[in-house]
TrEMBL record:
Residues in RNA polymerase sigma-70 region domain copies: 22-88
Keyword Transcription: yes
Domain of life of the source: Bacteria
UniProt cross-references to CDD domains, sorted A to Z: Sigma70_r4
SUPFAM superfamilies: Sigma2 domain of RNA polymerase sigma factors (SSF88946), Sigma3 and sigma4 domains of RNA polymerase sigma factors (SSF88659)
Family: Belongs to the sigma-70 factor family. ECF subfamily.
Record's protein name: RNA polymerase sigma factor
Transmembrane segment boundaries: none
Keywords: Sigma factor, Transcription, Transcription regulation
Chain ranges of the RNA polymerase sigma factor 70 region 4 type domain: 115-167
Amino acid sequence: MVSEEEIIAGCKQGKASSQEKLYQLYSRRMMAVCVRYTRSRFEAEDIFHDAFVKVFKYLDTYNGGSFEGWMRRIFVNTAINHYHKNRKFEDQLDYSSVEESTPSTEDIISQISGQELMNIINQLPEGYRLVFNLYVVEGFNHREIAEALHVAEGTSKSQLAKAKASLQKILLKQSMSEAC
């Protein structure tokens, strides 16, 4: 079995077999990243292919650490760039005083599958979904999100608060319909 380091070294040398192995090793996980940031499979595939081209183009800049983390950052940044080119926030009001709150409802999330949760998150408006993914899934802080999306930090906070409120409504509605 070829190690990740050997695959990366082969890619840096331009070996097509190593590039194919790298693609096979990470394609499913990176496609999942792309799907989280888009509304359609077509958009996700566009981002996916653009990001993989960037991975191979900038592979010489990788200098250790988590390779998957390095790659993931390229995919997330490519998704953000795609967003900037193709969409605007639906609601960019600056609510800098919005507080983050955790709903006190029972844990409905533990009762649904990962795919169901992804489908629910995909129901969010574009701006909410983007901020939610960056904050909750990728671990960005509001300052980083604001810089990446070219918005005020308060906008990031308000988009996250609205995303959480929307998710709560969707989840409660879903749990009520299942209870009936």
